[in-house]
Amino acid sequence: MSRNCILLLLLLVVLGTSDAWRRRRRRRRAPSCGPVHGGWSTWGAWSGCTCNHVLGTGTRYRTRSCSNPAPSCGGAGCSGGSRENGDCSSLCCKITHGGLSNWSSWGSCQCNHNLGTGYKTRTRQCNNPSPSCGGNGCTGSLKDTGSCDDECCKITHGGLSNWSSWGSCQCNHNLGTGYKTRTRQCNNPSPSCGGNGCTGSLKDTGSCDDECCKITHGGLSNWSSWGSCQCNHNLGTGYKTRTRQCNNPSPSCGGNGCTGSLKDTGSCDDECCKITHGGLSNWSSWGSCQCNHNLGTGYKTRTRQCNNPSP
């Protein structure tokens, strides 16, 4: 027998002995197999919603497996279904077409001062309601532009108005001085759209010392002449009056008035007021004879007066 054959036979014997040994070892170590009943895993995530847009309804599902633990050694499987269906109509399934909101307020005017033109804008949204579940978007522009040339865009420089009337005199009576003011406005026209304001004062002050500010106390004038006698013939009495004025000088700027009466009354009984009836005086001497030589006649006269007493 050749050497190679002997080596081959030895190898087969060794391999056969080793395989039998391993089978005997496994039989000694294998444990007894008791039944293990299956248990459910936790639910998986929900699937996407399957929608019926015509009806506005939708469904979705989720699954679990009988793997917590898996049944083994003749154990019972899990009780119940491995799939659960759920409603998702509220998620997407009613088609809603978009509607436009009201316009916003106009924005501020954007001016081109060189051209004297301007524009302003306003916006609206497609959210009344917003489109959803495949609904149509809104029809119409979301931005509107309007002209605002008249609001600010023409530059206008300010111009001064006429002066107002002078105000009342503000006096310092202690010093005998005073001042008065007048004003004007920057509104002819008013500056706008970045135009320049007015050049010049809006307030003017002037002296008014001579108007009121030096306090002058009143002084009495001289008495006037006596007036005519006012008589009471029944009583034989009468009176006459004279006057004077508080104008020498007149009081001004808070000065005091005059002290003393402005009217004076006096008696005039002897002038007119006692009724006296007339009385005749004695006759005068006869005058010379006035002759008419043709007729041989003549006459002479004498007189008397109604002054004894006079009426």
Task: Describe the fold and architecture.
The chain is of the alpha+beta class and 311 residues long. It has 5 helices and 14 strands. It has a 3-stranded antiparallel beta sheet. A hairpin with a 4-residue loop joins β4 (110-112) and β5. The longest helix is centred in the N-terminal third of the chain and has 27 residues, at 3-29. The chain is rod-shaped, with a radius of gyration of 70 Å.
List the helices and strands and how they pair.
Elements (H helix, E strand, L loop, with lengths): L2 H27 L20 E3 L4 E7 L19 E5 L1 H4 L17 E3 L4 E7 L19 E5 L1 H4 L17 E3 L4 E7 L19 E5 L1 H5 L16 E3 L4 E7 L19 E5 L1 H4 L17 E3 L4 E3 L12
Antiparallel strand pairs: 1-2, 2-3, 4-5, 5-6, 7-8, 8-9, 10-11, 11-12, 13-14
